[in-house]
């Protein structure tokens, strides 16, 4: 299967739905209060419709497969995530551009979503590598990626210019197919608690 093919993924905790305009209301509520995160790209509530459109345009161009994250316990959409930097010929993809509402952080939502995305990448799309990237200063994200079992590949220094003009050092992690069974088991154990 192609990384960019529209698909809905679901487990007992979350449903990842192809990002659509009708997710805007929940996503605007979910984005409220995340403005303090200068090192990540969470849209302001009023910018959510434009962000949905930007991600959908990137999907149409084949570079991204965006999802809304629906928390099944509440029925609410609590964030976004994507397959991005899709390299279908080399079977390589990045899981990124992820953000989750404050009330869903440090819950079952992120590990459940990562379990679905990684299973789809490795088992559904035959990925040879799944990459995760984050800002050097995003310690919460780095810790979450490391808890997954991803290995740090390195740091891309002065990798991007942020909207406020600061330079971003990007920490790059990856998971390879032979590591996927242990990563899957770790996520399943976390979710069973």
Characterization of the model:
- With 193 residues, this protein is of the alpha+beta class.
- It has a single domain (9-192), classed as Aminopeptidase.
- It is 31% helix and 33% strand.
- The protein is built from five helices and eight strands.
- It has helices spanning 24-31, 48-60, 109-124, 139-148, 180-192, and strands spanning 9-10, 14-18, 64-71, 76-87, 92-100, 129-135, 151-161, 167-175.
- The chain has an eight-stranded mixed beta sheet with strand order 1-2-3-4-5-6-8-7, sandwiched between helices.
- Helix 3 (109-124) runs antiparallel to helix 5 (180-192).
- It is globular.
- The model has no long low-confidence stretch (mean pLDDT 95).
Topology:
Layout: E1 9-10, E2 14-18, H1 24-31, H2 48-60, E3 64-71, E4 76-87, E5 92-100, H3 109-124, E6 129-135, H4 139-148, E7 151-161, E8 167-175, H5 180-192
Helix pairs in contact: 3-5
Low-confidence stretches: none
Mean pLDDT: 95
Q: What do we call the CATH homologous superfamily?
A: Gcn5-related N-acetyltransferase (GNAT)
Percentage of residues in helical conformation: 25-40%
Within the largest sheet, what's the order of strands? 1-2-3-4-5-6-8-7
Termini distance? 32 Å
User: According to CATH, what is the topology?
Assistant: Aminopeptidase
Q: Class in CATH?
A: Alpha Beta
Count of DSSP helices?
5
Largest β-sheet summary = 8 strands, mixed
| DSSP strand content | 25-35%
**Alpha-carbon Rg, integer:** 16 Å
Computed structural class: alpha+beta
Order of SSEs: EEHHEEEHEHEEH
CATH architecture: 3-Layer(aba) Sandwich
What's the β-strand tally?
A: 8
Query: Per the principal axes of the C-alpha atoms, what is the gross shape?
Result: globular
* Overall number of structural domains: 1
């Amino acid at each position: 299967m192609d990384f960019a093919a529209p698909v809905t993924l679901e487990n007992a905790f979350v449903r990842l739905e192809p990002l659509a305009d009708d997710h805007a209301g929940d996503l605007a509520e979910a984005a409220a209060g995340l403005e303090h995160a200068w090192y990540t790209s969470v849209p302001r509530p009023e910018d959510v419709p434009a962000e949905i459109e930007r991600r959908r345009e990137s999907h149409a161009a084949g570079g991204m497969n965006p999802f809304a994250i629906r928390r099944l316990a509440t029925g609410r959409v609590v964030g976004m995530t994507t397959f991005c930097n899709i390299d279908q010929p080399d079977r390589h993809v990045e899981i990124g551009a992820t953000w989750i509402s404050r009330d869903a952080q440090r819950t079952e939502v992120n590990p459940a979503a990562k379990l679905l995305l990684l299973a789809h990448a490795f088992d559904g799309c035959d990925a040879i590598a799944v990459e995760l990237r984050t800002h050097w200063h995003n310690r919460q994200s780095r810790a979450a990626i490391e808890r997954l079992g991803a290995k740090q590949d390195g740091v891309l220094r002065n990798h991007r210019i942020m909207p406020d003009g600061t330079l971003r050092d990007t920490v790059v992690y990856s998971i390879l197919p032979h590591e996927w069974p242990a990563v899957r088991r770790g996520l399943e154990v976390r979710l069973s608690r």
